[in-house]
Amino acid sequence: MKRKEGESAREKLKRALDLEGLSYLGDLLELRGTHELDARGCEGILLYSETCIKLSMKKYVLNIEGEGLFCSSYLAYTVRVRGEIASLRFEKREDKK
Asked: How many domains does the chain have?
């Protein structure tokens, strides 16, 4: 795919992946099986229980649902969640339109 004049590499990637509606690609989720998730770019923990953890990311809220969930570390905007992860769900942040 040829880069349009004045287009950055990030913009080219968004276009190639058909992500034109997204203006931020800085968050990174790394899932290892169903037992461990690293969420980079986390701005805060909104809800914390053994069955649901909600993380405030740059432009969305990440809902992690499962059993025996816990945050094993949180530093440098990266949260590591461990436990039996059953689902991930993304909600648009109302304050970030």
From this structure: 1
